[in-house]
Model the fold of this input.
Amino acid sequence: MSTPLLQVEDLAKHFAVSKGFLRGTSHVKAVDGVSFTLERGRTLGLVGESGCGKSTTGRLLMRLLTPTSGRILLDGRDVAGLRNRELQEFRRRVQMVFQNPASSLNPRQTVGAAIAAPLRAQGISPKEGMKHRVQSLMDRVGLRPEHYNRFPHEFSGGQKQRVGIARALALEPDIVICDEPVSALDVSVQAQVINLLQDIQADTGISYVFIAHDLSVVKHFAHDVAVMYLGRIMEHGPSSDVFGEPRHPYTQSLLSSVPAPDPTADRSRRIRLSGDLPHPSNPPSGCVFRTRCPVFALLDDEKKTRCIEEIPRGDAACHHLPEAAAFAAGRAAPTAAVPATAGSAPAIATAATATATATERKIHADS
Ligand SMILES: Nc1ncnc2c1ncn2[C@@H]1O[C@H](COP(=O)(O)OP(=O)(O)OP(=O)(O)O)[C@@H](O)[C@H]1O
Ligand code: SF4
Ligand SMILES: [Mg+2]
Done:
């Protein structure tokens, strides 16, 4: 079996944060035991709610942050040990596209100079000349080469993101980490940028880690998907499997809340999560999803204890996948009759609390 292009093993990043004068420090577990591989010519979609650790993972992959523990291997080589020329080569091979194209460009620098910057930083002088090289990159991403001397404010949001993509491609990288590259763009422009990324992948065999909170974007673009929650991966696998038949209760709930194109679609399929998202400085023990898991509430005490005490691992990180499948298949209409708990957000009534009926009986019957 060939060595994967990128391997991430049990990666963690805990930020030390001061709690105030004489109160010591706490640790924000932004990323806490993330593992995946990325093959050549493939796209991994990294999805999850705000604050779940997507960008921190991206910055760790870029070596912009030092991991607390775990390893990142490029072609089987631990990138933590790279120095000097090897580190420079790593920086050439792994590039990033940022969420906000406007703030990632210097307003006083022409787009030509912005795209040339990585080449200059690496001391590369293209034999066809810098300007020619930059203009062919502009052409590749759908920008007019004669706009070489224009400034970022003269471009639309989508065009600015094309500049960001050209800049990331300048060094012919093997991997581009795209951190929410289309979130700031209009829907029609999003599709154009995604089509461009796909075309470039088809031409060059480049690999992407594509970070997004919009599941529909990832569904059509990523070959594989990893669903993150509180610094951990809840479910990971080929997109067709994860989107077609989600196994983890968190993925099931995320997908059930994606608006259906058909307005007459069965809204009783929707799972609403209870409670607030815990803070990553104080994540729940065992399964970090347990305080909001609709399946947890339906389990017997022995099974609950396992959720509380033992960290689940694997492609679908849940101790009780049969119960999760039964819940997903059998849940009934949620919530209208369920009173909201005092002090809680209005959307917290859950299918679980509302319908500890057929599904609950089935889970207990299975146990
Ligand atoms: N330098 C830092 N110091 C302390 N905490 C941090 C730091 N960077 C990130 N965090 C915290 O780590 C957690 C994960 O942040 P991260 O930016 O990776 O999330 P995200 O999934 O990219 O969120 P979003 O979708 O909002 O961009 C958050 O709770 C964030 O506040
Ligand atoms: S391990 Fe328990 S709490 Fe976690 S997702 Fe599975 S059933 Fe829910
Ligand atoms: Mg982010």
User: Anything to note?
Assistant: Confidence is low (pLDDT under 50) at residues 332-367. Residues 96 and 177 are 5 Å apart (CA to CA). Residues 246-366 form one domain.
